[in-house]
Amino acid sequence: MATTLRIPPLAVTGRRSGHPLAPQREGGQLTAARPVTALRVRKITSLTNRRRNVNVKSVYGLDADGKLSVAGKAQMLRAAEVSHLSDGKVAPHPRSGCVLVGPDGRTLAETFQMGQGGLPAELIAVEEAREHAKGATAFLNLEPRHGIMASDGRAVEALVQAGVSHAVVGLRHPIPGLGGHAIDAMRQAGIQVEVLGSAAGASSGGVSAAEAHRACLEANEAILHRVATGRPFSVLKYAMTLDGKIACKTGHSAWVSCGASRQRVFAMRAISDAIIVGGNTVRRDGPQLTTRREGGHLPIRVVMSRTLNLPEDGSLWDTSVAPTLVMTQRGTRQDFQNQLRARGVEVVEFDFLNPGVAADYLASRGCLQLLWECGGTLAAPAISDRVIHKTMAFIAPKLIGGEEAPTPLNDLGFVEMTQALDLAEVKYEQIETDLLATGYLPTSGGLAAAATAAANV
Fold first, then answer.
1. For the chain, how far is it from start to end, CA to CA, in angstroms?
2. Which of 30, 51, 68, 115 has CB 3.0 to 4.6 Å from 23, enough for a Cys bridge?
């Protein structure tokens, strides 16, 4: 199990060359992507342009019994919500949001960190609140980076200098060497800090605290899984008919799901570092694997193929749209590899290629979250290799039938129902005519299990 986590600086330009995995050209040669460290973060005073009042008696989030108050829960839930506002604008990173509430119960600022290396949400909040921050309460969905390892102390320093009196932290920072440092620093500076999910918070938090803590876990499920497993958080997405088919026997699959479900997939792509498919998907569907959005983050498109039996022309080879990385086995079709490289496609060879090798390689390049949009031939070994943490299944009210029509998963080798993989924390959501079912595989065990595992790394 990995004990360190390296995530490269993230670009915010929204340009197609801005992805940390995107190769750059110098004198006609492909080189590693340049780090981008200067990030600008948009300030927001109030996303709704109105002040929301809270109970002044419990303005810092705890009632007389030490439990998270209704007002405090609402503010923490809001901090988790605000932390998502960088989604799709920059490459995935630990989500950090801050809601600053004044002593009179007014919301002074709602801010978020745009990307790794950007201005801390706490710093932006106190700059926005100015003198009104004195005596205020900061609701933070994630503990700020602080200390020698973080090479950063701006968040805590800003809160202390502004005279913030209380802080409610939804989640200790899961990266080893960062957890607890900012909390300790705030307490030493005289700020009263409550941590949801801590030993003290768990005994006094009540149901409302548990709900708020859950929202904070969900906001950072990617970093929790990355730390706990040593691999990028991997989501397997597929769309199938009510009888479990992802395409007709001819391979035709446009479209299984409704338009609203496909929009959800585009949004999921926008918060992933990479989208992974196998050779069958490339040959059958000729996918673009883009976010269908102007500007913002563009994930790298990854094709896994041991044989490189791939079409010579296709949307994926147009790297002016988005970067493409092809993974294959050493020595395979060198002429075709050279053709791809000449078109700006990065090709990486491995002695033996499988989903575990691919995930570990992408982890070494700093990936935080992966979206697997492959068919059953690649999805089954990805599950067997314990790469997949979560499934995202869109179920359409359609019937195809037929023994030859493909299903989401090929053979996993199970011969008894007792071997079936039980999903944890399953959720169902109706999206127009479709049903979206999500759940965590045993590799994850669910958010609570991932959080516990990350805390013990």
1. 8
2. 30
